[in-house]
Amino acid sequence: MRIGNTEIRPLGGGIGCLLMILFSIVASVVLTVLVNLVL
User: Fold this and answer.
1) Per the UniProt record, which residue ranges are transmembrane (predicted)?
2) Phi, psi of 6 (to 5 degrees)
C-alpha cells in the first residue's frame, strides 16, 4: 500500500506495524468522542 512516496506494509516491518497500532488507537479515540457527542 503506497501513500505518496511512503510505502506501508501492515503485515511486515516494524514501521508498518507501529503505524497500524497508532491508527487503531486514533480511530478508537475518534469513534468514542463521536459517540459521546451523538449521545
Assistant:
1) 12-38
2) -100, 130
